[in-house]
Amino acid sequence: MKRNVIWNTVGTVFYFFCQWVLTVLVLHLTGDYEISGYLALAMTTSSSYSTIALFNMRSFQVSDVKGEFEDGVYAGSRIFTCAVSLVCCAAAAVAAGNSTFQVLCILAFMGIRLAEAWVDVLHGMDQKFNRYDVIGKSYLLRGTLTVSLFVAGIYITGNLLVTLLMVFAATAAAGLGYDGHCIRKLNPEFKIRMTRQVFVLLGKCVPFVVISYLLSQENLLPKQMLQNLYGADQQGIYSTIAAPALIVQVCSAVVFSPFLPVFSQAYHDNDTKRFRRMLGKLYLAIAGGSVVVTLGAVLLGRWGLKLLYGEDILEHYHIFLPVVWVTILTAVTWIFVAILTAMRKMKALLGGMAVDFGICLLLMKPMIGAFEKNGVNYVQILSLGLYVLYMVAVCELDIRKKRDEKGEKGMKEYIAGVRKTLEKHAWILPMVKYLFSLALTLVAFSNIPSKKYLLCCLLELGAIAVVSDLLLRNRIIGNIFNAAALLLYNVQMLVLYFGSSFITLVMVTNLDSWEDLSGNFGVYGAGLVLLLLFTFLPVRR
Question: What is the 3-state secondary structure (H, E, C) of 132-161?
Answer without folding.
Answer: HHHHHHHHHHHHHHHHHHHHHHHHHHCCHH
